[in-house]
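Objective 1b: paired records.
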Amino acid sequence: MRIGYGWDSHEFKKGLPLKVGGVELEHTHGLAGHSDGDVLLHAITDALLGAIAAGDIGTFFPSEDARWKGADSVVFLRAAMEQVHRAGYMVANVDSTLILAEPKLSPHAKKIQARVAELLRIEPNCVGIKAKTPEGMGTDNAAIAHVTVLLLRRANKPRARMTAAAHAKRGARD
């Protein structure tokens, strides 16, 4: 079992599309970023990569690389999922908290939950989507996402275990 944590934030900017969890929402402002600014998918991507100790989103998709300018964040999430599968794990659960003043996410929560579940290849009841407002704490012009993921070892990928002899041999070298 592995647990990962991810966090992301982006500032709102007028005239951009607003994407949250791979779902485009109606709003006058979108989230500015090198890619499409989807804070939820970015935080999930970081949580997945962190759970397998593979770095972060910037390791694989640096903002200095023009290839990722305006990129759909689904690309990042799918790459992280591939890393998770190569490491022998699968996603069991994801829980998220989004902090933004507007738009209100509750009318869109089920759609976001379904899309994230589809992308992670898990059931919607394994995806928690919660939304909070910043309560005037100075972040009204941004969206923030906090995410935790739980990974389980895939049944067809047994865990490599070191034998006692291998441990002893390794200890003698150290």
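Objective 1b, second protein:
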Amino acid sequence: PNTLGVALLMEGQVQRGSVQKGRNHIYLFMPAFPKKEGDKPSMRISVTPEGGGALKLFAVAEVTGKGHDTRHALHTFIRSPEASAHWSVVDGSNELVMRPGDAHYIAPSVHSMYVLLVGTDSNTMVPYEIEAASGDSIEELPVNGVPLSGSVDEDEYIRYRVAVEEVARHVSISLTAQTGDCDLFVGTTADVTSENSQLRSQAAGSDAVFIPAFSELNRRHCSEEVIKQKGECVYFVAVKGVSKRSDFQIAASMPDGVPVALAAAEKRKLELPPGSWQYYYVKVVPPMQPMTLEVSIESGVLISLLAKVVPSAKARHPPPELVDISDKADIKGSRFAG
């Protein structure tokens, strides 16, 4: 394919263009230096078609300067971007994210450069806007349970944000270390670290953090008033590398936090995220009769089953002191395996 020239893409500056099949656009993107020396920011390139049309976005990372001849690699990339790109977006998404843990990532410096190619399969001209950003942008962690993959070096942080748009929702965040070891930290500020986090999990290998809907933290940070005023509340998540390099998957979900009514002899099926729990309540009519709680596990391990007799109002909306009843339970069971 032919190119329509080369343009310099400045960070934070929206540029407009138009492209059609067989006529690609090339951009050179040199990221701005991070505010703190040694920081490795994620970089996002977004391309948005105007008035319909599908676009393709490809990127390669190159090191320029003395001793680096990039011409051959760039020519190869321009001729066949699908085969030689380090990053690509071709499936309907309009954003490409280059993360510090990616194999071809290069940190911002006087010799680092990213080459971008915008193309389309449309025979008609497709107008578009393209924008690049780095540094302060934090990747959104979806709450649908679908994991994101990443990599992190020793003592490095990769950060995410989890947006909560409804009250009375548990927040479950699970981290699976595929290679190496990394730790999970959760806080209420964008610069969350191991030192200032409110919640953490530093188990070897895989980790999980669970924020109960009725916990003191969630009542304060994600109250009905906060969500009504701002439209959402946000928890910030940090993955910190422990090993020299760790590959991981991270996922988040938001189970309904309102206790579920459970009738006598009723069976309910439930899938629990790692480290989480679910509240049920059973209405007891005097005189009290013997009660049996039965649980069967299809897979995994259920750590505990706990029950406590409480007034009905507290059963439907547990106060903070009943969020964790492990030391107050009237009935206890533990270690159920599938």
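The chain has two domains: 2-134, 139-253. The two ends are 56 Å apart (CA to CA).
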